[in-house]
Amino acid sequence: MFGRYLAKRLPYMMLVLFGISLLIFFLARVMPGDPARLALGPEATQEQVQALRHRLGLDQPLYTQYYVFVKGLLKGELGMSLVTKRDVSKDLIQRLPATLELVAVAMTIAILGGIPLGMLSALHKDRTIDQLSRVFAFAGVSFPRFWIGIMFQIGIAYTLGLLPITGRISGDPPAHMTGLYLLDSVLTRDLAAFMDSFKHMVLPAVTLSLSPLAQITRLIRASMIEELRKDYTIVSRTIGMPENLNIYKYMLKNAFTATLTVIGLLVGWLIGNAFIVEQVFSWPGMARYGVNSVLRNDFNAVVGVTLVIGVGYVFINFIVDLLYGYLDPRIRLKK
Amino acid sequence: MGVRNTILNIEGLKVHFDTLDGTSRVLDGVELSVREGEVVGLVGETGCGKSITAKTILRSLPVPPGRIIEGEILFLGDNLLELSREEGHQVMSKKMSYIPQDPMTSLNPVFSVGEEMGDLIRWHGRRRLGPLELMGLRRKHDNSIAKAVELLDRVKIPAPREIIRRYPVELSGGMRQRVLIAMALIGYSSLLIADEPTTALDVTIQKGILELIEEKVKEEELSVLYITHNLGVARRLCDRIYVMYAGTIAETAKTQDLLDNPKHPYTSGLISSIPKLTGDEFKGIDGRIPDYIDPPSGCRFHPRCPEVMEICEQEKPELVKVGGGRLVACHLFSTGGES
């Protein structure tokens, strides 16, 4: 089943990726301002600027530039960054794991926190616990993340001194395997590095998780309330299904399926929008790199980051589709 | 047959619904009782409050918009309306069973038939499971699947071993209904509430299901409240029939007495509206079930009643005994206060 599904989805995914590459390539090229001039500064002569334009291939027609871009892409090259003067792919490989780790931990918090909270809310609808969780969910969505991050830094990190204020790790990073510090330190059995990176992870991950946690809470609450009214819930309760089995198995699976799409979108959204949190916590991640690239008109870097985020979206949604098929037989059977 | 204990007794049950247009007074003092091992029919037109009555007994009335205004439901000595959620669930899941009306929405779409039946067979009547059992880490080694197959076989499902792996969406309405009937028969219960369970089935299968219910009644002293609009089915299965009209009980009597000699004008109308294969013109009752927000004064049937009198518009008739264990709520029998 999986193979057949993959065969059906793969060409479609390729098409989407091709579309993304085309779109962001041209959008990056039409951004106002001359990247070469920006990179060299106001002191540079016209000749120097021309030379750099030539070296970057900016004097070529767009289709030639695109051809060169795709050719490089197939070799794993994304072109030189005007800021770091290295190939963008190298910059990304260095920064992407930091963002992925942050997003993964934040999403885990959001899912593991949002589902129970939403269920609690639904099962105690309109009672105190529900009111509290709704206020919390509302606050989580509406408070700006940079403000929450700074509050955490002042309160928990600075005043109480419980956790580090910024950065990803204080000591030496664990031996490089995946670039995900938590995972690497587990794999290399480096407890010190694990605790170190874990402490650094807590505040940014919690800050980043609040908004998705709140959204998941609200969605689970709404779909659980709906499930409570469904005929099949009432029937199985009436004919002797244990109450908690009915809730945690039979209702939750339906409610979770309804929430899954949003979880997929949230992951993609977080990868792109982690930059505020990365900025506040000086997190050496890709999202921050991306925003800086935009500000400096570092077009190769912009294209690289956008491409990674695009691929991330496509990949996550592919996983979500697979999970859908796994969770809901109606989708699996439709084929 | 000696006098049997009453296991379900409903007194003066009033249930209202709050709607945007006002309060819908659906159940207006329902009186009903079921004795041990008795099959009782609840018959009436669509919209007369049969299903609401069932839902109220099963504590699955949506509140809001529904509201139980007054009345009591005594079941095996407990007033169901006074029990807490937990206690009520306990009594209901152990002692009652239910076959729902709509097979299309009554099965969980994301679980296979075997999965859901297996859990019901394994855990029937347990109020809560421990965490390990809940996660499926501790499964009782049992014959639940074999039992599920056997039950499906009893409700005449072809190839039950195959069906057990199927999901509801792969089954027809009739098949789903039979799965639901099989589920309702899991575990021992005292009262089965069946809400038009055979409506979606063809006549031969319907016959099989009715036989199955009769068998369970005989074997296990099961009591049944059988809700239907089909007097033919009620005649076949029921010992006693309640005729319901617009949220009130119009009449009750032993099945044969009721059909041979209906007292309430509504019952007569209902019987004469059964299409007959032989016989003359098909007769019905003029008019429709009344509006519950602004129901007719007095007897709710009076606007449609062929024998309407002055008092019918003013006073609601009480259920009175008319001999032979019969009860009728009609001024034709209460005026003069006799027999």
Overview of the molecule:
The complex is a heterodimer of chains A (about 325) and B (about 350). Chain A is built from 15 helices and no strands. Chain A is mostly helical. Chain A is globular. The mean pLDDT of chain A is about 90. By secondary structure, chain B is α/β, with parallel strands linked by helices. Chain B has 2 domains: about 5-110 and about 190-290, Rossmann fold, CATH 3.40.50.300; about 110-165, no CATH class. In chain B, about 30% of the residues lie in helices and about 25% in strands. In chain B, the strands form 2 sheets. Chain B has an 8-stranded mixed sheet with strand order 6-7-8-3-9-10-12-11, sandwiched between helices. In chain B, strand 11 (about 320) and strand 12 (about 325-330) form a beta hairpin. In chain B, helix 5 (about 145-155) packs across helix 7. The interface of A and B includes residues 237, 238, 253, 254 and 327 of A.
Low-pLDDT windows of residues of chain A: none
Report the total helices of chain A. 15
Which ranges of chain B are low-confidence, i.e. pLDDT below 50, for 5 or more consecutive residues? none
Biggest beta-sheet profile of chain B: 8 strands, mixed
Straight-line distance between termini of chain A:
10 Å
Assembly category? heterodimer
Order of helices and strands of chain A: HHHHHHHHHHHHHHH
The total of beta strands of chain A comes to: 0
Instruction: Classify the secondary structure makeup of chain A into a structural class.
Output: mainly alpha
Number of helices of chain B: 13
Question: Which structural category do the helix and sheet elements of chain B fall into?
Answer: alpha/beta
